[in-house]
Amino acid sequence: MAKGRLRAEMREVAAWVDDLRQTFGEEYIDKIIAAGMRGQPVFSACENGHAIGTPVPTGDKVIKDENGNPYILVKADGTREKYDPVSDTFAPEDSVPPRPKPSRRPRVR
């Protein structure tokens, strides 16, 4: 399905992604979405019978890191991995440097 058609079929997801891009930066969010499309359990969405990305496996959960970013994967077996946007993969939690808090841009009214 063409990219424009998917946005038309998944309007609420498209609006949510647009808001994420405005808040956290287009490049950063696009990297996370691309990782989900490549099989990393960091992004998934479904709407109107369409599903994209890779959901977090059953029994696993995503929690927030020390800066409030939801990038730590706690697997069902208790092991923890942290998403490393530089290498675009998950790695043992202690091997990934902390990510700074995103700056909040004031909303223009």
Structural class: alpha+beta
What is the helix content? 25-40%
Largest sheet strand order: 3-4-5-6
- Put simply, the count of helices is 3
Low-confidence stretches: none
Order of helices and strands: HHHEEEEEE
Biggest sheet details? 4 strands, antiparallel
Overall strand count: 6
**Tally of discrete structural domains:** 1
Distance between the termini: 35 Å
How much is the average pLDDT?
78
Gyration radius from CA atoms, angstroms:
15 Å
Beta-strand percent range: 15-25%
Estimate the global geometry from the Cα principal axes.
Answer: globular
Description:
By secondary structure, the chain is an alpha+beta fold. It has one domain. Helix content is 30%, strand content 23%. It has three helices and six strands. It has helices spanning 3-9, 11-24, 26-37; strands at 43-47, 50-54, 61-63, 72-74, 80-84, 89-92. A four-stranded antiparallel sheet has the order 3-4-5-6, with no helix packed on it. Strands 1-2 form a two-stranded antiparallel ribbon. Strand 4 (72-74) and strand 5 form a beta hairpin. The longest helix has 14 residues, at 11-24. The termini are far apart.
